[in-house]
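=== Per-residue structure ===
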Amino acid sequence: MGLESSIKVAALTKIYDTQKAVDNISFELKKGEIVGFLGPNGAGKSTTMKIITGYLPATSGHVSVFGFDVQAQPMEVRKRVGYLPESNPLYYEMYVREYLEFTAGIHKLGKDSKKRIEDMIAQTGLGKEAHKKIGALSKGYKQRVGLAQAMLHNPEVLILDEPTSGLDPNQIVEIRDLIKNIGAEKTVLLSTHIMQEVQAMCSRVIIINNGQIVADDSIEHLKQATTKEDTLIIQLEKDIDNALLNELKNADRYENLGGHKWLLSTQDPESLRREVMQWAVKHDININSLQAQTNTLEDVFRTLTNNK
């Protein structure tokens, strides 16, 4: 028996005047997944997230969170969803604890409020800043406050829209580690333009382009599906005379990638593999590795969202 679906999106469409921002998309998220939600600016990511959280109505389609309909049962959904929008709207004149107390009141946490607030301050690393006004905090600590409010009511689902936008590299690593720890117990849908973050955190990616889903798979499967089979990377044990590579009849061109590594382009990868092995034996050259060039997640993203 499979894991319970925490989010179900079915035939979701959102139209603004004449623009179809989201075009008949469907996907599901299981409990414990951290899923990267990727796409170019204007692809429909934020719109989809706002519909899932109940902040925007859909034009058509159906969205549910743990079986509760977003349109028909919005309060039940909001009990189970924590949301950090891209803009991270905070009350800058409030002190950190004051703001979290205010948020706890909205969620009606009652006698559990104080403990939850202190737990979130500790979990998000806000301890030494908790006495300050939010407006006096750095961008990284403002993001931590946003995450603390999103998690304060202990939701089962977290929707995070560009959670590390504008942060410095150290802050990015800190927030990334925090999200990974959170994701061990919850479902996380994460929008970002930073592909390294997706690779570091996510078990799966959904790519949306022009309002439509163009990919929904694990990162490794997507990279393999778009691997450049016409390009081989060869790692040799020692330096060679470049002219030796001219002997490879099945190599259309070659390029040194630094050190003893070479890129070989070909229209017949299998024939080139065999030829390289024979060539190496002939010249007494040891080959450390020989493999098809593997795409990066950036390559996959560009391939699937490059509108021509």
The domain at 5-217 is CATH 3.40.50.300 (Rossmann fold). The first strand starts at residue 5 and ends at 16. The chain has a mean pLDDT of 89. The chain has two domains: 5-217, 228-301.
